[in-house]
Write a structure and sequence with these properties.
- By secondary structure, this protein is mainly alpha-helical.
- It has one domain.
- Helix content is 67%, strand content 5%.
- It has six helices and two strands; from the N terminus they run H-E-H-H-H-E-H-H.
- It has helices spanning 5-20, 36-51, 56-82, 86-100, 107-110, 121-128, and strands spanning 33-35, 103-105.
- The chain has a two-stranded antiparallel sheet with strand order 1-2.
- Helix 1 crosses helix 2.
- The radius of gyration is 16 Å and the shape is globular.
- The N and C termini lie far apart (39 Å).
Length: 129
């Protein structure tokens, strides 16, 4: 059980950065951002399902429910295997730390239209609602 604690916490952190972090609006410059790396990973399934011509309702269900669970499971398996060696542990932590630096201010805050054209999870969710 203790061997699964680090991969589970890694998965929870990536889900927070890619899905939950950009959704909540908190009036703090550090928290009010959009993580491009994890946002694009979690938004990719939704984007692809819309582009291949799925029914929009099915694409929404796939993008909101199925794809994030698939990504979380995949990240858990990869990180669990990586944490068996020192090199893998260092690489997994390096990817997580470096991904923290891919956070930019949300387009509503800056007025910049560049991030709104990217298929991140938050931008696709905002398009649906």
């Amino acid at each position: 059980m203790t061997k699964a604690v680090y991969p589970i916490s890694y998965v929870i952190l990536t889900a927070f950065l890619g899905i939950l972090f950009p959704i909540y609006e908190i009036d703090t410059p550090i928290i009010n951002g959009l993580n491009l790396f994890w946002g694009l990973i979690y938004g990719l399934g939704w984007f692809v399902s819309l582009r291949i011509g799925l029914n929009p309702h099915l694409a929404d269900l796939f993008g909101i429910l199925v794809w994030p669970v698939m990504v979380l499971t995949f990240i858990f398996v990869i990180v669990k295997r990586a944490f068996h060696s020192r090199l893998g542990t260092g690489a997994a932590i390096a990817v997580l730390v470096l991904s923290l630096f891919t956070t930019i201010s949300r387009p509503e805050v800056t007025g910049n239209a560049f991030p709104s054209s990217l298929p991140t999870f938050r931008m696709l969710l905002a398009g649906v609602y």
